[in-house]
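TOKENISED FOLD:
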Amino acid sequence: MLEKYKIFKSLVLVGLLVACGESAVTRTRSSLSSDPVPTPQVATLVTVVDATALECSNGGSAIVTYLDANSSGDFDSGDVERSRSKICNGAQGTPGTSGYGAGILVESAPALSCSAGGSTFTTFVDKNNNALQEEGESTTSFTTLCSGTNGVDGRSAHLSVTLATAMQCPSGGFVYSSSTDGQLAPHVSVVCNGQNGSNGQDGTNGEDARFIMGAVGPAVSGKIYSACHHDYLFFPDPSGGVRGWLSFRHQANGSADQGIGSTGFQIWNVDISHFALASEVGGVTYCSLQWDPLARRLSYTVVDNQDELGGTQGTIEF
């Protein structure tokens, strides 16, 4: 009986070992499987950061796309930047050199004017563009807006003030929105600063000299006279016209010339265009001249060759 029990027990153990052996083999093969391990997904995100000074000299922003390597949701040192686009502020315009601006002053309304509070708005001519109303800067408008009080219907008034955009006011300004409870849309007013005035007109030019004086022809070396032996004296037209008066005197003669006082100047031509400068004694022709009164131009040609300057030409402009 005992031997039969031992034989039965041995058969059971063998069956269990066979069954367990198959299971072990199966598990070993499963653990050696070469199936790929899933890779974590890295999100690509977009953020807006301040532009660097190198990107935007007047400041601005940069739109950055990046791989969020640590899945933090923020752009930090562990992330990989993919692209960067800058949006720069424009350079500030050159201030105007003349003209007055329009200033606005916002103050709390006095209790006598607004029992529930409010604001007063004063616009004025800001001559020095410092946004302060000072002596000599006249008021152009004055407005008081009071806060509403709870009445029978329980509605209150509201007022807000914001800066105007560049599109609304190129020179700056404010946007005022007022409404009451239950009002479908607020009442909006835009008050813009005045633009710089235009530059003033240039002043008139000063008057020309009363007269112009000089020698006709080049100076003669070692002599006290010029090649034409005469000085000119030109008087511009005081009425502003292009014409004037031209007179001459014989050099070094002084009162010996038949002229005005001791200067010897004589008015030799007014409207003539061709004439000559000659000696009163001996009839020597020194130079032939051509006068253009409209162009105020005197041209000369040296005729006398005693100083070896014959044929020399020149022009004098007045």
